[in-house]
Amino acid sequence: MSLKRFMSEAISPWMKNEGPDSDIVLSSRIRLARNLENHVFPLVADEQQSEEVNEQIRKHYENQAYGSVGNLSYINVDQLKVIERRVLVEKHLISPNLAEEPKHSAVLMSEDESISIMINEEDHIRIQCLFPGFQLSEALTLASGIDDWFEEKVNYAFDEKHGYLTSCPTNVGTGMRASVMMHLPALVMTQKIHRIVPAINQLGLVVRGIYGEGSEAQGNVFQISNQMTLGKSEIDIVEDLRGVVLQLIEEERSARNTLLETSKIQLEDRVYRSLGTLANSRIIQSKEATKCLSDVRLGIDLEMIEGISRKILNELMILTQPGFLQQYAGETLSPDDRDIRRATLIRERLKLEKNNE
Prior knowledge:
Blueprint lengths: L2 H6 L16 E10 L12 H15 L11 E4 L5 H9 L5 H5 L5 E4 L5 E5 L5 E8 L3 H16 L6 E2 L3 E2 L11 E8 L1 H5 L3 H10 L2 E4 L12 E6 L7 H47 L5 H16 L8 H10 L2 H8 L5 H21 L2
Helix pairs in contact: 3-11, 8-9, 9-10
């Protein structure tokens, strides 16, 4: 599959489906960190050592099929333009770290983009599996299968006492990060999120922004994930996270009901003002756009707005990011030009949706 295919569509094919509790849980992800035995880890490897690892993995897995997901396409990240790397970050196919400092780095991707395997990021191999909605167990099953498939041809750095050896000590053990992306606007509006986040952190989990570590929450979207991987099995980690996510879903739904009961007119006003801003603005910054998209999505979930699909909002959340805007424009844009193009794109997309009713 060509690079153009991965770059041309904002929504990955797997995102077009809706999973369990998809009104609140946008996606579930399992990521496994692995390193090759008898190879220097990426953070201290020189150019030749990094190239050897990249070539070994490419030779074994480029255009190879895994089960029903089909062939994996190999993309050399080093050879991508800055904007192209940014687009892959915005689609959550590679990490910001890999985009900023590629060193003989690559990514193997399935056609539906639910599988993304980074090569020479912080670790030699990072297997990522994404599912729509709340499907952690399904994501773990797929990631574990790919992990076993890889181990048929490469040997991992593994210690009987400590488990899988990784560049960062917090990944040692299972090497697994389980995470869910959640839309929690009502908890933010009622300010309950300020009480909930510290409580989650005390349970050994961490709350981050939409692009993971070091990123801020945009559009009331939060990533909840495990923090430590040593001393627990993969299943235990997933079950711990599952319990917290179920409680968060309950809290968010309760907060939405409270807003409807006590502030329905104010909530409707906020939702429709945001819809009006999106439908009519000529200039809009990214932060305002994501805030308005979050409000409109809440309005759709609460059946205040009809005729607009949640899928369109998912698309616009990615399509209006700086990388995609510039990819579509075919040139580097100034911040002011991006704000103008963002507003135009949103207006046209919403108009098209209305015309297709």
